[in-house]
Amino acid sequence: MQFPAENATRGTPVGKLRHFAMSVPDPWKTAEFYKYAFGMEVVGETDSSLAEGVFLSDGVINLALLHFKSDEAAQGTGRDHVGLHHFGVWVDDPAAVQQRIEQAGGEWLMGEPDVKGGSFYEVKFRDPNGVVFDISHAGWGGAQKNPGGSGNEIRPSRGLVPKFAERRAAAAAEMAARTRKRA
């Protein structure tokens, strides 16, 4: 499909869709499902003030499986919500994109870019419909900015959280038992 050159809303994309986050009751059991069904790989875990969870990747896109610690931390969906929570866009210039988002009717929700330290961050917004999304100029673990293109960047994996070792092992054993019965 071609768009007219005068269409000011099109042009050079300012971001790449590279991250989805789902709110789930048990991130480790859910991770085992996506690993088995689609061959995704674990690229990290989190135990932040907002949520605990597992990060997966197919080599291009990062999928966060999160269990939020409170209704407030769930940013409007509620702690017990199950389903898509937000998506993320990898951008080159967070300040310029934030300005575009706000001009288009989006509103800042939380977070600030960490442009100096190079650490992981997300800046979250709501679109005019209330859908939560975030932007990052550093990407997400296991995600690629421009697969096959020049100047491609691959965000490194995050580490595993040692205190979740038992939960990882239990979820893996449960999946192994389930798939042995059906194989």
Features:
2,3-Dihydroxybiphenyl 1,2-Dioxygenase, domain 1, alpha+beta, eight-stranded mixed β-sheet, disordered N terminus, 183 residues
Written description of the protein model:
It is a single chain. This protein has 183 residues and is an alpha+beta fold. The protein has three helices and eight strands; from the N terminus they run βαββββαβββα. It has one domain: 2,3-Dihydroxybiphenyl 1,2-Dioxygenase, domain 1 (Roll), CATH 3.10.180. The protein has helices at residues 27-38, 94-103, 165-182; strands at 15-23, 41-47, 51-57, 62-68, 83-91, 107-110, 123-126, 132-136. An eight-stranded mixed beta sheet has the order 2-3-4-1-5-8-7-6. A hairpin with a 4-residue loop joins strand 3 and strand 4. Helix 1 packs across helix 3 (165-182). The radius of gyration is 18 Å and the shape is globular.
Give a count of the beta strands, DSSP E runs of length 2 or more: 8
Q: Examine the secondary-structure arrangement and name the CATH architecture.
A: Roll
Over the alpha carbons, how many angstroms does the gyration radius reach?
18 Å
Which class in CATH terms?
A: Alpha Beta
Query: Could you give the order of the helices and strands?
Result: EHEEEEHEEEH
Enter the CATH topology name.
2,3-Dihydroxybiphenyl 1,2-Dioxygenase, domain 1
Instruction: Bin the strand percentage.
Output: 25-35%
- Strand order of the biggest β-sheet: 2-3-4-1-5-8-7-6
